[in-house]
Amino acid sequence: MALGERIHRQPAEVPFRTLSREQQAIVTEIAEMIIPETDTPGATSVKVPQFIDLILTEWASDDERSAFLSGLADIDARASALGAARFVELTAARKTELLAALDAARADTKGAGLAFARLKGLTVYGYFTSKPVQERVLKTKMFFPAYQGDVPFTPAI
């Protein structure tokens, strides 16, 4: 939780550094399909795609980053087998069909299944460690302004 919160506190307008525009589009589309905007914020509105890019840039190893990016290319390749040049160009029904197949392949150690598993995990992690979700959805205060060392300790009995 602490890592996710710390990453979210970084400047809001950090540019994408790892994901290309095409990769950003796939990540954004899939993240929003995983956690869509309803009466609560969706993944995109709490900047999950930017969070994922930051994790890929600053925390992922070269091998992890490469496997993820290769998996995104594989997702586009699978989309072409369904009749579109890229994932983002599929119909909503085809996108759902492909993501259901990828969800079943989450245990794969490479390719689209691996990328989807990582993307799904990072979407959930990024979403629930964001300040708007913690305050408006979870109704908790996880972001504290400062350490308060003067709070008395009361042992639980």
Gyration radius (Cα, Å) is: 18 Å
Q: How many individual β-strands?
A: 0
Form type: elongated
User: How many domains make up the coordinates?
Assistant: 1
Structural class: mainly alpha
Number of helices: 7
Helix content: 55-70%
> In percent, how much strand structure appears in the residues?
under 5%
Instruction: Tell me the series of helices and strands, N- to C-terminal.
Output: HHHHHHH
Q: Unreliable runs, pLDDT <50, ≥5 residues?
A: none
Query: In angstroms, what separates the terminal alpha carbons?
Result: 28 Å
Mean pLDDT, rounded to whole units? 87
Main β-sheet: number of strands, strand sense, barrel status?
Answer: none
Helix-strand layout with pairing:
Elements: H1 2-8, H2 21-34, H3 48-58, H4 62-81, H5 92-104, H6 111-128, H7 131-136
What does this structure look like?
The structure is a single chain. With 157 residues, the chain is mainly alpha-helical. It has seven helices and no strands. Helix 2 packs across helix 3 and helix 3 (48-58) crosses helix 6. The longest helix is centred in the middle third of the chain and has 20 residues, at 62-81. The model has no long low-confidence stretch (mean pLDDT 87).
